[in-house]
Write a sequence for this structure.
């Protein structure tokens, strides 16, 4: 299955990240442009206004010093000097009627605004406004100022030059923007691809695995970023799944192996009974052996079921208050005879009363498995010591120590696995399920089992059980 079906492209993270990147870049550039544009426009306008004010000041001075005739000449002279298409001057009476003006051929559209004169007469020192000439699409900044008693100056300045600069600025900006947005889209795409490629690698590996290969792993780039962490977590999950699957396979093999021997024996017995003539007593003995084998099988199956249910949490331990001390004492008494028969000393060091919340039946099973092993794997003349100690505010620790043959370093890490039996223990009775069940019970109670052992010196199994479970 391909990751890049065209229909999915628009929904892809790469596409959306690129779009966001380009979009945010474009939006912020436009905001920056807008602010810059507004700033330039207001600076230009301010500069133009300053020029108009200073001209009004000069006119006022000429009027004061040399009279109205000189002002008229000054207007003509100033307009010619600056360019008659750039500035114009009009001298007005308070009625709005023109006294004189510079050459107004280019400025025919500009009228005298009565309201502006009204504002001046009402006390405003000067009135300034922008007029847009629709015929030429030109903007003119116009100042009305009272330059002497009964003399009003109307001066206008074309903004055409500035407008051209701003047009060029807009053009350059738009072209640069188009280029930069294209570049940003490319960079965004590249960055998004880099970020997403790690996720794609994980998806590809996951797809490969559903195809049946559990050995595949996602490559870790070693950058220590989130994608690396995801890849490492994914690989760790695969490790766990792989070992679980291997465990399940091994368990299947072990079950098949352990069930095969008793079934073969039962079949063999039945076959012999059918093919050879036997006495009634012999038939009865065979039937008894078959029942024994079946009981063994049933016990294995029941123990397996119990381990699975306890580990899966289906068989939850009841949480009654139980006196662990008396349970341990009872177990020691129960196994005392067996130990004695095998020539062992069984000692029991248990305090008075040690209450925990737990399942008495399950704890009994745990105790009997540990004691059974200690007695089974210790030869005559040896010792088995059981002790219980209370841990204040937490619970209790039970230890079962023996002076048996011990467990080899090869066997030690595996003895809690289902059906695992040490090589040297094959001759002893058992199915390799006792410790698995004991550990499942301890863990279901919120505790655990640990073991320390030395070959030819003995083993110590320690069970911790919290008081509250
Ligand atoms: P089983 O006793 O039926 O073989 P267990 O699950 O109880 O199965 O124990 C698994 C293995 O651990 C045993 O086969 C044995 O090799 C080892 N083992 C357990 N307890 C002891 C012990 N006290 N001393 C030596 N080996 C032990």
């Amino acid at each position: 299955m391909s990751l890049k079906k065209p229909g999915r492209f628009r929904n892809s993270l790469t596409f959306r990240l690129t779009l966001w990147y380009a979009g945010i870049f474009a939006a912020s550039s436009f905001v920056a442009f807008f602010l810059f544009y507004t700033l330039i426009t207001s600076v230009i306008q301010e500069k133009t206004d300053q020029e108009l004010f200073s001209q009004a000041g000069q006119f006022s001075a000429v009027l004061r010093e040399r009279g109205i005739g000189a002002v008229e000449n000054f207007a003509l002279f100033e307009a010619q000097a600056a360019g008659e298409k750039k500035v114009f001057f009009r001298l007005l009476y308070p009625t709005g009627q023109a006294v004189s003006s510079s050459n107004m051929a280019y400025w025919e559209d500009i009228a005298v605004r009565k309201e502006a004169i009204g504002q001046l007469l009402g006390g405003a020192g000067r009135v300034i406004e922008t007029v847009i000439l629709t015929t030429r699409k030109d903007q003119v900044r116009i100042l009305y100022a009272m330059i002497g008693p009964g003399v009003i100056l109307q001066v206008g300045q074309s903004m055409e030059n500035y407008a051209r600069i701003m047009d060029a600025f807009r053009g350059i900006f738009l072209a640069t923007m188009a280029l930069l947005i294209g570049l940003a889209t490319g960079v965004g795409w590249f960055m998004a691809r880099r970020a997403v490629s790690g996720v794609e690698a994980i998806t590809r590996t996951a797809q490969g695995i559903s195809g049946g290969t559990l050995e595949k792993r996602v490559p870790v780039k070693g950058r220590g970023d989130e994608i690396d962490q995801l890849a490492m977590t994914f690989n760790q999950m695969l490790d766990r799944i792989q070992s679980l699957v291997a465990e399940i396979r091994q368990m299947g093999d072990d079950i098949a192996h352990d069930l095969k021997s008793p079934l073969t024996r039962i079949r063999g017995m039945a076959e012999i009974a059918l093919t050879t003539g036997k006495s009634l007593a012999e038939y009865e003995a065979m039937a008894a052996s078959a029942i024994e084998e079946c009981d063994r099988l049933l016990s294995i199956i029941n123990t397996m079921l119990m381990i699975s249910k306890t580990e899966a949490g289906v068989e939850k331990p009841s949480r009654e208050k139980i006196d662990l001390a008396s349970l341990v004492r009872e177990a020691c008494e129960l196994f005392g005879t067996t130990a004695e028969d095998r020539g062992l000393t069984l000692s029991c060091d248990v305090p008075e009363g040690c209450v925990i919340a737990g399942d008495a039946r399950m704890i009994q099973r745990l105790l009997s498995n540990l004691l059974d092993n200690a007695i089974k794997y210790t030869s005559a003349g040896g010792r088995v010591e059981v002790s219980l100690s209370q841990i204040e505010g937490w619970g209790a620790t039970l230890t079962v120590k023996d002076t048996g043959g011990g467990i080899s370093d090869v066997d030690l890490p595996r003895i809690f696995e289902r059906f695992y039996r040490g090589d040297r223990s094959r001759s002893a009775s058992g199915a390799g399920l006792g410790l698995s069940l004991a550990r499942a019970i301890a863990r279901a109670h919120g505790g655990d089992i640990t073991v320390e052992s030395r070959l030819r010196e003995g083993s110590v199994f320690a069970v911790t059980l919290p008081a509250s479970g």
